[in-house]
C-alpha cells in the first residue's frame, strides 16, 4: 500500500487509540447571555442556514476527516448518509491519494460519499502544499471525484513540520490559493487543521478571494500530537519530541472565530467544537456554522444511525441555546449577546508585539 494511503490508516488508528485531544478552545470563556423572556415558541425555531446558495437544515459541518485507504470507506459512507438524512454539510479528508494513485479501492473511499449522500452538501479537500505541484485542472479532478459542492484547501504546516516525511516548503502558497479561488468551478474554503487562523492571515485570505474560512483552531484534535505518535512508532525521536512540544500550539478557536469573522462574512468554526452549545457560541461570535470531526469518528464506525443520533443531539442542544437567547433564527443568534471572560479576554486584549 503506498505511503500516502498508509498514513491515512495510521491517523485513524492513532485518533481512535491514543490521547490526541487538547484543551483551550476559548469556548469555556464565552457565555451567552440568558434571555428569561424569549417570546418565541421553541418548536418554531429555524436552524437552517445558507451556505454558498445551498440550504443546510442546521449550521453543522461534519469536518474533513478521512479517505484514501480502503479501511476508511465505511466511515465516509456512514458520514455521508447521515449528512444526507439530516441536511448538514460534510467534507472528506485530503484527496491527494485519490488524485495521485490509480487504485479503485482508494477512489471508492472518496466516491462513496456522493453515492451515499446524493443531495448532501459535500466538499472536497486538498493540501495547500499540493497546490504548488498541481494546476487548477488537478483540483478540478478532486471536485469531479465526489461531485463536490465546494473545495477545501487545508493548511497544516505544523503537522508537516513534525512528520518525518513532511512537506515544509511554504513559499508561494498564498498566490496558489488566489489562483484556485479565482479559477475553480466551485467555491473555495481555506481551512486550518487544528492551529487556528489569526486575523492577519484571515485578511490575506479574504484579499485572495477565498469564499470561506474554516478556522480549525486550537483546542481539539492535535495533529502535532498525532504525528508525534507516528514518529515514535518509526523511531524518529526528534520529531516525536517536537510533536509533543507543539502539541498545544495555536490560536484558540473562539479567538480565531472572532478574528476571522471580523474580516470575512463566511466563517466556519471548528477545532474542539464538542456540542450544540459550542456551535451556538461560535455563531454568536460571527460564524455561519460550527464543525466537528473527532466526535463523529466512533459513531461512523458503528454506522449511519449512530451518526444521525449524534447530529440530532447536537441540533437539540443548538435549538435549546437559541431558545434561551431568544434567537428564532441563525441570523438572530449571530446577534445574541455574549460575554468574554478569562484567558480568552486576556488573549484578545493582549495581542500585539511585546504585549
| Biggest sheet character | 8 strands, parallel, barrel
Give the DSSP E fraction (strand runs of 2 or more residues).
5-15%
Number of contiguous helices: 17
Mean pLDDT score: 93
* Rg calc: 19 Å
Helix content: 40-55%
Distance between the termini: 49 Å
Summarize this structure briefly.
The chain is of the alpha/beta class. It has helices at residues 3-17, 73-86, 96-100, 104-116, 128-131, 136-146, 157-162, 173-183, 199-207, 223-233, 237-245, 253-261, 276-284, 294-302, 304-323, 330-334, 342-350, and strands at residues 30-32, 49-51, 54-56, 60-62, 89-91, 121-127, 150-155, 188-192, 212-214, 267-270, 289-292, 338-340.
Report on this model:
The protein has 355 residues and is α/β, with parallel strands linked by helices. It is 48% helix and 13% strand. It contains 17 helices and twelve strands. The protein has helices at residues 3-17, 73-86, 96-100, 104-116, 128-131, 136-146, 157-162, 173-183, 199-207, 223-233, 237-245, 253-261, 276-284, 294-302, 304-323, 330-334, 342-350; strands at residues 30-32, 49-51, 54-56, 60-62, 89-91, 121-127, 150-155, 188-192, 212-214, 267-270, 289-292, 338-340. An eight-stranded parallel β-barrel has the order 4-5-6-7-8-9-10-11, surrounded by eight helices. It has a two-stranded antiparallel ribbon with strand order 1-12. The longest helix has 20 residues, at 304-323. The radius of gyration is 19 Å and the shape is globular. The termini are far apart. The mean pLDDT is 93.
